[in-house]
Amino acid sequence: MQEPLLGAEGLDYDTFPEKPPPSPGERARVGALQNKRVFLATFAAVLGNFSFGYALVYTSPVIPALEHSSDPDLHLTKTQASWFGSVFTLGAAAGGLSAMVLNDLLGRKLSIMFSAIPSAAGYALMAGAHGLWMLLLGRTLTGFAGGLTAACIPVYVSEIAPAGVRGALGATPQLMAVFGSLSLYALGLLLPWRWLAVAGEGPVLVMVLLLSFMPNSPRFLLSRGRDEEALQALTWLRPADADVHWEFEQIQDNVRRQSSRVSWAEARDPHMYRPVLIALLMRFLQQLTGITPILVYLQSIFDSTAVLLPPKDDAAIVGAVRLLSVLIAAFTMDLAGRKVLLFVSATIMFAANLTLGLYVQFGPRPLTPNSTVSLETLSLAGTEQPPATPTSYLTLVPLLATMFFIMGYAMGWGPITWLLMSEILPLRARGVASGLCVLVSWLTAFVLTKSFLLVVKAFSLQVPFFFFAAICLVSLVFTGCCVPETKGRSLEQIESFFSSRRRSFLH
């Protein structure tokens, strides 16, 4: 078992010798009621993630509907459907790029609020679309908003949360994104595609309204020389009996030591580039597990495989499992630790992807061809699978394997990569580096989402799943060798760890 992150003694670890920090157990005993204002501020912020999750999977029920549309201006061809599914990730990459500037220019809170403008405009365009260009532009704008919030919200939440509940609160962005996706799947069973876009406007407006009453991050305010406002924000966020002045002095000391911007020479220092590189690689590997193309084409994947239940019902069931799994992660992250959940997560995803690949390779084929998003029967090209019967329980395998994949992802590599990004990035580079992480993440997602259908057409559906399974094995090795355990540590302690020049996180 890994030793505590800052377990070694010495000057490098004695960041605040005047008063030892409270233990993780003492911090945990603060209780939910005493942190109710932090929870309220977190809820207001993560409504942006709800919209992000909702917009991400918007194509799942919409693409099949538009493929059968009688309106020639809205009827999607195979190529158009792939662009409609993937252009969101290009917008998200642009949002991450803009976050590299806005996160430090406007601050975390105002950047989240700013995302409401492209989000509302994007939903309006898709709701009133009378041509493909409106659909693509709306999809791109909602992606831009999602990329911006994906970079800003984890940083905001980690900077306002006490160490004892930061793991649970750090899972809430992913939790709300999952809840947003589940809401889209559920509403997709009831509403036509235009009204799905209209419904997406609601959470955006509520987010702006609530955030206007919330404080900005005390760390950001201190970095801008607004000390009095920072103290007021921290006092509002903490319970009445908390030692606010001692925590404020810790944050103030850390901010003062990092008041200048990072130079290119400093960027080559291991204590600066190592956490940034870890965060970047985690975001890269997270996308390579296949989560985005699987979510975007979820209903289409079920359409192209033999399943016992209707594909719409399968998608909604998977969304519910994803929500439950993120809840499990939120409650266990501060107990089991980040690394244990990452190991469990990657193992489950590996088994699920391998199962999906083997099922497509050797399992039963659909009784009738499908026309959804060009997956069709291409996944079965060149194989001799036996035909499926409507009551064959073997056809539950794709649903169960996908449920386990989503469960594994949502328990670890989903929420923890976002949380660790906000925890380990150095304060001086946090705004820029978080935007860079989102940029890399969504550029990777775009390449995967755009190429997914092409790979399926050229090689069949099992090939992407075998590739995703191999990436899960790489993720296991990466977690064991490079990822630090940050459970119960303050952001200042984590930064001190990377400044200690230790060669390994495992000793």
From TrEMBL:
Localization: Lysosome membrane
Lineage: superkingdom: Eukaryota
Domain Major facilitator superfamily (MFS) profile positions: 41-487
GO terms under cellular component: lysosomal membrane
Membrane topology according to the record: Multi-pass membrane protein
GO biological process terms held by the UniProt record: regulation of glycolytic process
Ranges that cross the membrane: 38-63, 83-103, 110-130, 136-157, 169-187, 193-214, 276-295, 315-333, 340-362, 396-420, 432-453, 465-483
Keyword Calcium attached: no
Main location, first listed in the record: membrane
Keyword Transmembrane: yes
InterPro entries xrefs: MFS_dom (IPR020846), MFS_sugar_transport-like (IPR005828), MFS_trans_sf (IPR036259), MFS_Trehalose_Transporter (IPR050549), Sugar/inositol_transpt (IPR003663), Sugar_transporter_CS (IPR005829)
Region described as Disordered: 1-28
Record keywords, A-Z: Glycoprotein, Lysosome, Membrane, Sugar transport, Transmembrane, Transmembrane helix, Transport
GO MF: transmembrane transporter activity
Described purpose of this protein according to its UniProt entry: Probable sugar transporter that acts as a regulator of glycolysis in macrophages. Does not transport glucose.
Record-stated family: Belongs to the major facilitator superfamily. Sugar transporter (TC 2.A.1.1) family.
Record protein name field: Solute carrier family 2, facilitated glucose transporter member 6
Native species: Ictidomys tridecemlineatus (Thirteen-lined ground squirrel)
Gene: SLC2A6
